Amino acid sequence: MQAVGRSVLTRGGRVVVATAGLMVLLALQPESVRLVEPAAAGLSPSATAVRTLIISEQARRYLALQYRSFPTEFMGCMIGEVHGATVIVQRVAPADVDPPQSTATHVVPKQTCEQAGWKGTVGMIHSHPSGERCWYFFPGTQVTSSDGQSFLRQPYPVDAIMCGDEVVWIARNMVQKQVPLTDQSKRANVAREQQRGNRVHSGSASRTGVDE
User: For residue range 78-112, what is the model confidence (pLDDT) as tens digits?
Assistant: First the structure.
């Protein structure tokens, strides 16, 4: 009986050690990995189901004006509502950014949208003045870019990049999509979509902003 007792205790000790080791490994995981879970970012479960981004005409005009006015990156707070699987951006308010913190390749806000007084924020948007590197994953990989890492640290259901005449955006399902902002870009996107056919893979772009 004593031998059996020692064996049980030994197995129990191994379980405790293994559990403790697992907890240490989880604690050492990069913060960006842990923040993929909606609960960790303070999100409701419905935030993971967002599949469509709708941008109002007012917000489109503001974005176009900002994009043409500044050679450096700008950042805005997308204000709107979440209706099921759809995020509706009613307007875009300027984020609180010091001029030295906005360059042609990066922009850093001083405080959150809520701290700046903007309520109803559903996501952040910033521009890439060169119209390049408008992606959340490095091409052909599942490795997140700096923009993707930044999104994982935010509490909002969506994030977006202003890139010329279209907005590149992403939701918590980590699928990147595009929304054309002008009629001309819409026509061009339809032509490109027809050339591509119906092959849309996980993580690839949908030019309409809606799953196909």
Answer: 999 999 999 999 999 999 998 888 888 889 899 99
Greater confidence (39 vs 4) lies with 4
The residues with which 79 forms a beta bridge, in sequence order, are 91, 121
Residues composing the chain? 212
The span from the CA of 140 to the CA of 201, in Å, is 11
- The token pair at 12 is 């129990």
Half-sphere exposure of 207 (CA within 13 A, CB side): 17
Cβ neighbours for 96, distance < 8 A, ≥ 6 positions apart: 109, 110, 111, 115, 116
Residue 159 CB neighbour total at 10 angstroms = 23
This prediction has a pTM of: 0.66
Pick from 94-98, 169-173, 189-193: least confident: 189-193
Contact 152, 48 (CB under 8 A): no
Q: Where are the beta strands (DSSP E) in the chain?
A: 52-55, 75-83, 86-94, 97-102, 107-109, 121-127, 158-163, 166-171, 176-180
Comparing CA positions, the residue from 166, 74, 87, 72 lying closest to residue 121 is 87
| Contacts with 175 (C-beta within 8 Å, 6 or more apart), sequence order | 202, 203, 204, 206
What six digits make up the tokens of 52?
């469509």
Q: Are 72 and 106 in contact (CB under 8 A)?
A: no
